[in-house]
Each structure stands twice: as structure tokens, then as C-alpha cells.
Amino acid sequence: MAFLFPGYYYRSAYSVPYAKLYDEGMRGVIFDIDNTLVCHGAPANDRALELMDELKKLGYRICFLSNNGEQRVKSFNEKIGAVYIYKAGKPKKEGYLKACEAMGTEASNTVFVGDQIFTDIIGANLSGIKSFLVKRIGPKEEIQIHLKRILEAPIVLLFRCMHKKRCRL
Tell me: the pLDDT tens digits for 103-117? Predict the structure, then answer.
């Protein structure tokens, strides 16, 4: 059951302590896009662009890992210029390991930031990548994601009760 739990749970992708993680030896960040960095289907906004610029200045390599099609991921990444993998097949670990390879990092020095347990967190955990669950940004989602959220709710509650020190809400 531990593979269902994130390493950490944060209010948003924008509150994760990336500078501290870099000081601890992390060198790559893999991000989900929709409801992690922007609302579902939205383009990269100023906040996302500023975060990516800050991470690049710190020395991070960045990859977007998405189950969406190429057009969605490519258009989001247009102003950022990071590597990306579309139709990743999350939670299969192959996409996560391919992301590390594309960034030139290892699972041991890479973190993953996403908003869903059953795709994002399970895949990162199975790949040996430190996982950060964040609260979703907006309510708009496809029906299958909404249904998964119902199943995720007790897992998140259990994690929050058991691991209060790893929750930054």
C-alpha cells in the first residue's frame, strides 16, 4: 500500500521547496501539466513560466510527462522549451524512466510533481522517483479523472493522518 502514498503532499506545485531539494542533490523535475501547473487544458501562464525559469536558473533539468496527446503537451511547452513526453502511459514506469533519460538524470536525483495518485504518484513511486502530490488547481476535469478523485480521497486522508510532517498545506 505504500506505493499509493506520495513522498510529500503540498498545497501546490508552486510551494514545493525546489531550492532545498537542489541543495540535497536533486537535478531533475518531472511535471504533470493539467491541474498541476495550470487548469485543465490551459496554456502555460506567467506563473508557470516564472517557475520554469527559476528552476532552470537553479540548474534543474525539466520534463513534462503527460498522458495527453502531443498537441496539448507541445503547445504548453512552446514558451518553456523543456523536454516532454506525451501519451506517456502513466502510471507505467517506462515513461518516468524515459523522462530521466531525456533529462540526463537518474531516478535517485529526480523528483516528480503531480496531482493524481493513480497515475502520477504510483508511477513515480514504482520508478524509484521521489513523489510530490499537489492539490489540483481547478475543478474542471474529464469524468474518468473525477471518478478517480473519489477513490483517491480516502488514500489522501490516510496519508495526511499518518504523515503530518510531510504535508505542507
Answer: 999 999 999 999 999
